[in-house]
């Protein structure tokens, strides 16, 4: 998925302004941002439901707007899924089968094993979480190449969340599906996403490739000899101590940080992975209240 300089105006108000987004094939990309940041609007463009005011939106190498061939390869679980009011899961599956060439009945049965839902009951009688699960079931049965998930775990209990993530990640592993998932919850995305973008007030603050060592931030735990002090020459973003063990978050690359610390002859030194929360808090300055609200 590739978005360049996307602008969207609603009634002369810009919901998105100059947004760039790059989601490589087979990636699981987390899109985070506060309420009203523009996440759903961006996703609406990627499904082809919204027409850009300016800029370009491409999926699988082609513009999405008015492009049925590309749209047929996109599966979407919106934050509030739509079903025909009288239909059951079985009825919706029949509708999907009739309308979408790639709806796979065998897959519908296989994926269905992960759901504890009555396929004959009208969907309007389902709870919010059950409707969300039904949307997952039907969408995954479309065998999409691109999966768009707008706050997908909202309203799902922890066990079901785990099962849904398993389904999505299995799909990525087996079919190299490309996934874009929006969420308010960084902890939920931790360990799942390999790319990440922060959207705020209609602009993309920054995109991260989490598969690479965190550009420029290192977390290191170190125990120095009795009475020794931290050497000079470290740009420390955060420092915490538990007994003699110090946990440092330091700007710079791993090699340089370890080299400087080694001059103090540490008794113990280990670099540990940064959590997403730490990465965002320290890389984006740490003093930004809105971002703190977003990640904590
Ligand atoms: N159809 C619309 N008409 C007018 N304004 C809209 C419309 N859809 C969205 N907006 C505005 O665009 C901005 C972005 O909204 P959007 O729903 O994309 O945000 P979001 O990041 O998904 O928020 P949330 O996390 O609360 O779901 C908001 O200011 C919203 O009021």
Structure summarized in a few sentences:
It comes from Olsenella porci. With about 300 residues, the protein is α/β, with parallel strands linked by helices. The chain contains 10 helices and 14 strands.
Description:
- With 296 residues, the protein is α/β, with parallel strands linked by helices.
- The protein has two domains: 2-209, Rossmann fold (3-Layer(aba) Sandwich); 217-272, no CATH class.
- 30% of the residues lie in helices and 29% in strands.
- It contains ten helices and 14 strands.
- The chain has helices at residues 39-46, 68-71, 89-99, 105-112, 128-140, 158-175, 186-189, 254-262, 276-283, 289-295, and strands at 2-10, 13-22, 28-32, 54-59, 62-63, 74-77, 146-150, 178-183, 195-200, 203-209, 217-223, 235-242, 245-251, 268-272.
- The strands form three sheets. Strands 6-7-8-3-9-10 form a six-stranded mixed beta sheet, with helices on both faces. The chain has a four-stranded antiparallel beta sheet with strand order 2-1-4-5, covered by helices on one side. It has a four-stranded antiparallel beta sheet with strand order 12-13-11-14, sandwiched between helices.
- The two termini are 29 Å apart.
- The model has no long low-confidence stretch (mean pLDDT 90).
- It binds adenosine-5'-triphosphate.
- Adenosine-5'-triphosphate (ATP) is lined by residues 10-11, 15, 33, 35-41.
């Amino acid at each position: 998925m590739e978005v360049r300089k996307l602008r969207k105006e609603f009634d002369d108000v810009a919901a998105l302004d100059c947004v760039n987004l790059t989601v490589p094939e087979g990636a699981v990309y987390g899109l985070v941002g506060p309420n009203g940041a523009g996440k759903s609007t961006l996703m609406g463009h990627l499904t082809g439901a919204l027409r850009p005011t300016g800029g370009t939106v491409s999926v699988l190498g082609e513009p999405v707007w008015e492009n049925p061939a590309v749209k047929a390869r996109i599966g979407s679980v919106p934050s509030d899924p739509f079903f025909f009011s009288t239909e059951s899961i079985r009825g919706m599956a029949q509708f999907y089968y009739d309308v979408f060439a790639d709806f796979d009945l065998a897959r519908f049965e296989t994926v269905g094993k992960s759901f504890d839902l009555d396929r004959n009951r009208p969907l309007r009688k389902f709870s919010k979480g059950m409707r969300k699960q039904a949307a997952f079931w039907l969408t995954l049965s479309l065998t999409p190449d691109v999966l768009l998930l707008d706050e997908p775990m909202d309203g799902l209990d922890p066990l079901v969340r785990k099962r849904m993530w398993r389904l999505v990640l299995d799909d990525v592993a087996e079919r190299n599906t490309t996934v874009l998932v929006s969420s308010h919850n960084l902890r939920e995305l931790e360990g799942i996403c390999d790319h990440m973008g922060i959207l705020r007030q209609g602009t993309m603050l920054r995109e991260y490739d989490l598969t690479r060592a965190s550009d420029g931030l290192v977390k290191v735990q170190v125990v120095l000899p009795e009475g020794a002090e931290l050497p000079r020459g470290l740009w420390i973003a955060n420092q915490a101590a538990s007994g003699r063990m110090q946990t440092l978050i330091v700007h710079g690359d791993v090699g340089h940080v370890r080299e400087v610390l080694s001059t103090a002859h540490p008794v113990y030194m280990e670099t540990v992975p940064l959590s997403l929360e730490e990465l965002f808090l320290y890389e984006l300055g740490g003093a930004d209240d809105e971002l703190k609200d977003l990640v904590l």
